[in-house]
Amino acid sequence: MARKKSTSLKMRILHRYLGFFLAGIMAVYAISGIVLIFRDSDTFKNTVVIEKTLDPNLSAPSLAKAVNNKRLKVTKEEGGVLYFAEGTYNSTTGAVVYSKKELPFILDKLTHFHKAKSGDPLYFLNIFFGLSLLFFVVSSFWMFIPSSPIYRKGMLFVAGGIVLALILLFV
User: Fold this and answer.
1) Which among 141, 171, 168 is positioned nearest to 157, based on CA atoms?
2) Are 35 and 108 spatial neighbours (Cβ–Cβ below 8 Å)?
3) How far apart are CA 102 and CA 92, in angstroms?
4) How far is residue 126's CA from residue 112's CA, in Å, rounded to a whole number?
5) What is the pairing mode between strands 95-102 and 87-90?
6) Which of 145, 129, 130 has its CA nearest to residue 7?
7) CA distance linking residue 45 with residue 104, whole number of Å
8) How would you write the pLDDT of the chain (171 residues) with one tens digit per residue?
């Protein structure tokens, strides 16, 4: 007669195979998380010069919307040309030339995946990944016998990790 698997063994097996399955996506989140730390700087970003023609005689707020720059401020205007920190706009012809800082294609894709919203087509995959990470947290407590010295030592590390998380949250 086959022996019934213990909860501990089932958790270990699920933990192991889910870990292997999610190795790629964990790498994506790790890399994009590191990149997102630098989102307020120009680290990893390339300067892209954009030249296009817009409608003539746009106001500053309309220009800001057209070039997708909420912080656009016109610094001066002379001869029908509006100057702003990133470029120029000729209000007579509608020609605009400006520069923009962008992440390289693959890093941009990684960070957009990391910051997915409920309106994104595959947002449920992010929910699955989050729940999987939560499972890893819970299932790790079934890796060792609770009475073993390594488990007790592990609990000290858990306490240290919780304290560190609280410090990082509130400092």
Assistant:
1) 141
2) no
3) 29
4) 12
5) antiparallel
6) 145
7) 7
8) 556 778 888 998 999 999 999 999 999 999 999 999 999 999 999 999 999 999 999 988 999 999 998 888 999 999 999 999 999 999 999 999 999 999 999 999 999 888 889 988 888 888 999 999 999 999 988 888 889 999 999 999 999 999 999 999 999
Query: Phi and psi at residue 58, in whole multiples of 5°?
Result: -80, 145
> What residue has token string 């958790």?
11
Q: Quick one: pLDDT at residue 1?
A: 53
What pLDDT score does 131 carry? 94
3-state secondary structure of 51: strand
Rounded CA-CA distance 129/135 in Å is 10
pLDDT at 6: 87
Alpha helices in the chain (DSSP H): 7-21, 23-37, 60-66, 105-114, 123-139, 149-170
The answer to whether 15 and 143 are in contact (CB under 8 A) is: yes
What single-letter amino acid sits at 101? K
* pTM of the predicted protein model: 0.72
Residue 8, number of CB atoms within 10 A of its CB: 15
CB 88 within 8 A of CB 98: yes
Planar angle of CA 51, 70, 114, nearest 5 degrees: 95
